[in-house]
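Late entry, evening session. Most of the bench is empty. Finally got around to the prediction I had been postponing all week. Sequence below, unchanged from the version circulated by S.P.
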Amino acid sequence: MSKRYLLAVDAGTGSVRAVLFDTDGNQLGCVQEEWEHKEDPRYPGSMDFDWEHNWALASGCIKGVLSQTGIDPAEIAAVSTTCMREGIVLYDADGKEIWACANVDARSNDEVAQLIALDPELEKEVYRKSGQTYALGALPRLLWVKNKEPEIYKRVAAVGMFNDWLIYKLTGKLAVEPSNGSTTGIMNLQRRDWDPEIAEKCGLRSDIFPPVVECGTVLSGISAAGAEQTGLKEGTPVVVGGGDCQLGTIGLGATEPNQAVVLGGSFWQYEFNTPTGKTDEGCRVRVNCHAVPGVWQYEALAFKPGLVMRWFRDGFCQYEKKISEETGADPYDLMNKEAARIPAGCYGMICCFSDVMNFISWKHASPTFTNFELDPEKFSRYTFYRAILENAALLAKGHMELVEEATGSRPDEIIFAGGAAKSPLWSQILADVMGLPVKVPVVKEATALGASILAGYGVGIYKDIPETARRIAKIERTFMPSAENHAVYEKMYPVWREVYGAQLALAEKGLTKNMWKAPGV
């Protein structure tokens, strides 16, 4: 019997890639292309998605990975897709794309204000059904199209997400799955299906929703056009995938209730699996469908920890960058080595960047370092660097406690993945702050692996998603918390929360500028 392989197509915020795996979860090849989502100069905050150019990049990645690996397309048992969440594509009656925006498109301030004026309690009602607010969902964006592009709005026949769009380009079949579809705010979490009444209450059409097909289901086969454009074999099964965070947690082995993952990238996510779609009474934290049928996820988002690290490296660590150029060492490794000498708590210094999530009124204070002394022996750039690491870990603790308040449950351990998990220092700080074992997997960028697991499940190679994920997602190292450092952070955490509240109050008064706030807030 010939070997069989699984292909994942992953459309992230900054790039698209095609990744080929064997059935043991080993990555055999990857071809990636960066893309960008340009602002329409007429509409500040917009983030347009160029479907023609971006499909050329995606299909080129598929051709590229076939060429790179030399795999016979006939040996690919199944294909699945994943993508950034929240981005939407609108189609006309002929199935042609007519409008699309990427995930953090922020052009709809006027529409958020319009929805609030329509009914000040409607956002909470939408949240309790869907787990979403206006901050990232599709409702204000669709209303924007209705208001600002009425001719396009009249032509809309269907709305979909980017992972569904990839499948549509491969097969000619359009359906939406619940893990990413639930991020629109137009799905009923409990039913894992569209709730047209939500759209109607927001003054939107309720006849534009494609069928919902559960993750891990074979939707169709590669069409003749899809085969010609990608080099894949016509008829190859295409399995419904899911949103990037949900598939990332599958690729990390977090498929069952009460498991938790911290994904540390440009943004940090705390993902906690639950057995129900029950939402938070205070509307503070996002709830999504998991890509595992019968499981849901509480999701708390932290804005920009990875981008803060990049800013600090580029703005203040020219010496480490110079050494990196000369020796090939990672500048972050050089900074980590020095920051590890700084004691837990940074001698009392605190920094404020992202705040603990409050989904219904989501805003962040102005970036701040405070409570440092004019003592260069204690307060060098490495102290400031370590404070950034600690700030992200304190955020993760805040999110764990927030989700525990909503669900009554907390995890026994944390799986830590993403770029931040490559840092042993950051991993240890996270364990010390959380007071829990932190497990770092071998595969730290797990989204495509999760898509490959769903692909294999869909065609029967894998019989069970949780069992397969446990077997494939191997742990590289476990960081155990230091009782001494944990005690320091337990005293530090309430102080940090209070300091952050004071900084947020300054921004509320207009004395400082918010790092970020949701449209219309």
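Two things to note before I forget:
The chain has a mean pLDDT of 95.
The CA atoms of residues 144 and 150 lie 9 Å apart.
Will write this up properly tomorrow.
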